[in-house]
Design goal:
This protein has about 300 residues and is α/β, with parallel strands linked by helices. The protein has 14 helices and 8 strands. About 50% of the residues lie in helices and about 10% in strands. The radius of gyration is 23 Å and the shape is elongated.
Length: about 300
């Protein structure tokens, strides 16, 4: 099967390489010419523009966009839709907010195209391990893309599935990432507690390796944590600053809208946000309150 790929960052480039290895014809475009050159080197065909990419594909076309969520998706669609024909399919494999996906799907239908949303997990490991994909869209359109999805997945019938209508794929991926926030926070807190138990002299990498086999907390995330602890057990040179890419926030919003209690995911998001507060105003105010009502000592900052 042939496919157009717009957006050749790490994920897009790795997906392109995996599909080429599986025997699919790939035409790739990126705003960065160097990114196009990299996928050409592994067997894809390069395009100089979106119009060029579309022109190199036979109708009905399938074009996979792998760009950051938000404005980049809208701008890509603005360039793509006018040059596509009726019956062409657009796949959004990024981490788009599912409500945006529903809006974009309607715009695609008005132009005669179909939008399929693929929530994609696997990161930089997807090239070798395969990608977990949660697919939303019309059944007939998803079935048409089956050869591509089977090639990207860990196995033909493993790690991917058609989870529902348009928007469902990005919705399920959003919840997936919200759960990921909670899991990561739990691991981080547990290892932090052990790191403070100086009298036991615990080897955190050793403990992670023990837990990887037979333990009820074993997971791929723990496997990766073990690698991190082997390389840098004291986290030297790493700032305590944890970004979030949006999905955790959207999950919390959805929980509130749906009247579903989700304290673990919510608190893990708050913890990430708190990690970026260099001024730590709330903590300073807490210290001042304790001094005001109880005369407790305030720890002053050293003079600059």
């Amino acid at each position: 099967m042939e496919l157009g790929m717009v957006g050749l960052g790490k994920m897009g480039a790795f997906m392109t390489e995996r599909l080429v290895e599986a025997g699919h014809r790939l035409v790739g475009f990126d705003l960065d010419p160097a990114a196009v050159e990299r996928v050409v080197a592994v067997g894809a065909t390069g395009a100089e523009s979106i119009e060029d990419l579309v022109g190199q594909l036979d109708s009905p076309r399938a074009v996979w966009i792998m760009v950051p969520a938000g404005d980049a998706v809208d701008k890509t669609l603005e360039m793509l839709l006018p040059v596509l024909d009726d019956g062409d399919v657009i796949v959004d494999g990024g981490n788009s907010y599912y409500r945006d996906t529903l809006r974009r799907a309607e715009a695609c239908r008005e132009g005669g195209q179909q939008l399929v949303d693929v929530g994609t997990s696997g990161g930089v490991w997807g090239l070798t391990e395969g990608y977990s994909m949660m697919v939303g869209g019309e059944a007939a359109v998803v079935d048409r893309l089956r050869p591509i999805l089977e090639s990207l997945a860990p196995g033909r019938d493993q790690g991917w599935g058609h989870v529902g209508p348009t928007g469902a794929g990005h919705f399920v991926k959003m919840i997936h990432n919200g759960i990921e926030y909670g899991l990561m926070e739990a691991y981080a807190e547990g290892f932090a507690i052990m790191a403070q138990k100086d009298e036991f002299g615990l080897d955190l990498h050793q403990i992670a390796e023990i837990w990887r086999y037979g333990s009820v907390v074993r997971s791929w995330l723990l496997d990766l944590t073990a690698e991190v602890l082997a390389e840098n057990p004291d986290m030297e040179g790493i700032a305590p600053y944890v970004p979030d890419s949006g999905e955790g926030r959207w999950t919390v919003f959805e929980a509130i809208d749906s009247n579903v209690s989700a304290p673990i995911i919510t608190l893990s998001l708050m913890r990430r946000i708190g990690s970026r507060d260099e001024y730590e105003y709330a903590d300073r105010l807490l210290s001042a309150m304790r001094h005001q009502f109880g005369g407790h000592a305030i720890k002053l900052e050293p003079p600059q």
